[in-house]
Amino acid sequence: MGDIVGAAIVAHYPGLMLSEELRKARGDGKDTSLIAGFAELRRRLDAVEPDTFVIFDTHWFTTNLHLVAGAKRYRGSYTSSELPFALSRVPYDYPGAPELAAAVERVAIERNVAARDVEDESLVPQYATLNLVAKLRRDEKIMSVGSCQTAAFRHYLEMGEVVGEAVRRTPGRVALIASGALSHAFNDLGFTPRNPNYYDPVNVSNPANARLDREVIELWRQGRHDVVLDRYPELAKAEYEGRGAHYVQMAGALGGRSWRARGTPCSQYENAAGTGNIHIWFDLIKAEAAL
Questions:
Q1: pTM for the whole structure
Q2: Which residue has the higher pLDDT, 290 or 271?
């Protein structure tokens, strides 16, 4: 019998993997708060002692099926086709969670949900997984979950429910990590920063998107996941990363509209190439104690 012991929304963009010198040059002498935020997230993870990370990956786009990565181990070297100068020849070597992935497929078949387990060790992980493995993992197993680009909102909730049930049926302590940005509309190539500090939210591509992000963050602080989920059409219009699948699937695993865990920001709200980014931790233990 497994337990979900923690949950978080975590930024992963490639600039976070640059050297401190380069990050501070971007920030007009200031580093992004997301780096210190990784340490704060790790502190909170240590407190709940997970043995497995389930990473809802906004870069693993799938078609006509929800997919989970269920190989025993992932080894290789990764170069991003999107931003190779930030992520080039990055080595990775970490254990998968094949028992949990197999349980996901079994539950999906029972519930007639279009989801399958990919056991092929040659599957190349995306950087929405790899960057968090680099910044957060100690010895945890990793299971990535894709973002199906042909799915609708209800399908993401259903897939989250499948993952949650699979966790309950599989021994272990699982942390759910929604890897991605909030609003995800990029600035164009000729954009001139409004503030020389690249990370300043004034550089988010659309002020309306930044306002929406701040409203959502406040709702998360209050534990009002029902309201956020009901506002999904607004999130989709603001181009939430991966169609918002990372958050919606995580919420589905934790009860959907009935989920009431309050979110604690572990970083400031920041810009990256016009997108809105933040680390948020959801304290599931306090939420359970309040029931």
A1: 0.97
A2: 271
Residue 248 has pLDDT above 80, yes or no: yes
Cα 103-98-118 angle, rounded to 5 deg: 85
Comparing C-alpha atoms, which of 136, 183, 177 is closest to residue 277?
183
Could you tell me the sign of the dihedral formed by the alpha carbons of 212, 214, 215, 219, in that order? Answer: positive
pLDDT of amino acid 243: 97
The tens digit of pLDDT for each residue in 181-194 reads 999 999 999 999 99
214-219 LR contacts (CB < 8 Å, sep 24+) = 214/269, 216/182, 217/182, 217/263, 217/265, 217/269, 217/278, 217/280
Set out the domains of the chain in order of their start, with CATH numbers: 2-290 (3.40.830.10)
The residue to which tokens 């197999």 are assigned: 102
Is 249:6 a contact under the CB 8 Å cutoff? Answer: no
Inter-residue contact 34 to 58 (CB < 8 Å): no
